[in-house]
Design goal:
CATH topology: Alpha-Beta Plaits
Shape: globular
Distance between the termini: 17 Å
Strand order of the largest sheet: 2-3-1-4
CATH architecture: 2-Layer Sandwich
Structural class: alpha+beta
Number of strands: 4
Radius of gyration: 13 Å
Length: 92
Amino acid sequence: MLYAIYCKDKPNHLQTRLDNRSAHVEYLKQFAGQHVCTGPLLSDDGQGMVGSLLVMEFGDRKAAEDFAVNDPYAKAGLFESVTITPFRKVFP
């Protein structure tokens, strides 16, 4: 099943994001075949990163939750909130 994982960064935590980016990217690579769409959420001007959106395939909700909890960004305390929602891809 697909899950959308919507993560909003804590205010003023850009340095936390930058400091943990390489570990986060390496972590994502471990799940390469499961990504449908993954990337940072941007500020209104398109210049700053303010969160993450990942749409990924998991066997069940627990697997999606485990993935989210073990993300280096989450472990570093970057996120103000994380929402995990089942998702159905319609287009394209």
